[in-house]
What does this fold into?
Amino acid sequence: MIENSPFTRKLAGYVTLSPAELEVLKRLHKRRRSFTAGRDLVQQGQSEQAAYILSEGWVCSYKVQRDGTRQIIDFQIPGDFLGLRSVLLRTSDHSFEPVTDIQAIEVLASDLLEAFAQTPRLANAILWAASRDEAMVVEHLVNVARRDAGARMAHFLLELGARLALVGMGSKAGFECPLTQYHLADALGLSAVHVNRVLRQLRENQLLTFRNGHVTFDNRHRLVELAEFDEAYLDHTGPVLK
It folds into this structure.
């Protein structure tokens, strides 16, 4: 049911979708594709590329430097758009790699523009989602540049938890997480050894535990204080358009 899809749940945080708008969303979901973990579905510099709505699994977006090192820009979870900017600008400025095997909905530029023309409120909701993603990238820049390693890790995992909660995949207690310490290192500008040390310190301080693919917030209040985490930039509780 389209009403229960992660993408619909995400947009429902901004706009109360009408039956006509749900029907447009249903038509956007007509091209379902599967991708294998570790194989790029969009590559940096690629043109004439479709966008995707992630419905199952996790993806990372990243850029590779000339020396071969990788900087992960963000992780995409179910309900997120992949490559929306590259469709509108025609060239992707970064790559997308599935972290797990995924299911994604392929959306052509023509389909997207037709949907926008038919339902302006849906276009507003997708613009909200894109603006929220941009706000997260700004926060990630601050995270890497200004926070110490413990606060950086805490902020990152709190943000992931809040994002997953929006689509029914997490809570204030914690969430399932398939990321490795190497993923965390590339996202946070740390070495894998440093990531291991930081996670151990957070666990020993009884703030959070990341074990067997699950993040548990052992003391979320103290974790929020450590990270100075203010989720207003995620705009989960803004006014819903009727």
In short: The longest strand covers residues 70-76. The mean pLDDT is 86.
